[in-house]
Amino acid sequence: MLRRQYPGWEFHVVDAEVALSAGFIAGVGDVDPATGTKKRPDYLLIGRRRTGRDTGFKVIVLECKGTHQNPKFAIEQLARATAQVESLTVAGRTPLSLMVASHLTAAQITSYLLDPDGDGDLWTGPVRDMDDLLRGDPQDENWTPDPMPGAATTRDEGEPSGTDRDAAVVSPPATEPTETQEQPPPAGPYRFNIPEDRRTWFVQILTRAAAATTLLFARNSAAARDYATPRQRREAPATNQLELFDLDREWATSTATTLSLPNGLRLEGTRYRTPLPDGTVLEVFRGVERRLYSLLANGQIGPYMRAAPGTYRKWSRAPTPSGAVLSLGRDGTALVIRLTTGRDHRD
Questions:
Q1: pTM, 2 dp
Q2: Are 22 and 205 in contact (CB under 8 A)?
Q3: Domain limits of the chain?
Q4: CB 85 within 8 A of CB 37
Q5: pLDDT in tens, 159-186
Q6: Dihedral of CA 164/169/171/175: which sign?
Q7: How far lies 27's CA from each of 143, 149, 186, 188, 222, in Å?
Q8: Who has greater pLDDT, 14 or 347?
């Protein structure tokens, strides 16, 4: 939808908690026990213009909801989502945002969307300047999120004097609220503001988080680690946040390898195999197109972002390997799934 709305732009998805943790020392990812409402949105979409001599970056805030209740509840979820997308500002202005509430039934899935206007532009300049910008190594900032106007804090609600406010705010409820228990909050309740003079820092954080996520998909945690700040790598003092860039637990044996497919596509990544009760073997390979993988592993984010769309268009027209399911991502990632016999492990 965004590619249709913004022709010539490509978008990468970044987990909001991962991105914001590099700038804010408290509050990211926490849950307010009074309302059960998360204080930040789900994802940030970092977009890059890929046409013309000049290029640019924009950010779009994405909040996702879903329900099996009646459609009215999906609309109520969108009302709650407005508070979450407004919790992030850049230079005091709310970026572009998308709010999606999906209503799931046995017959169909209906998605309701809101896309309010906002200021999504982060940076514009020549392509050569973009490469210099993305080669920069951003450091952790130590900003503190501010209560949104009208948002009640734990202390405002009668917290005893001398209580550790952070400990009181971040402690999750004993049980997570169900869909029908969730209530619309009056506000965010905290706002994370990126200062005007740190727009380029935010571009660096978002693009490096996207690069790390792509490498983690191929299970190259060593290269991904170089793209993360100390706080994202959990090398800074604990802030009551969940561990970031956490790798999936291995559900089967896995092997780092190169996969060459009959259509000429070569992937770098990891193969998983697990036996099934009928004697067959489920084999899953997840990786990144070889040239794009090499660019990311060598810290060349700018060339990677320029090359990824063309790589996707080239390989998306290639035939799917016989007996396999192939899924390609516009960021260069690929997922190959197939069933084999216990003796047949040929690529």
A1: 0.81
A2: yes
A3: 2-225, 253-341
A4: no
A5: 333 333 333 333 333 344 444 444 444 4
A6: positive
A7: 11, 16, 18, 12, 28
A8: 14
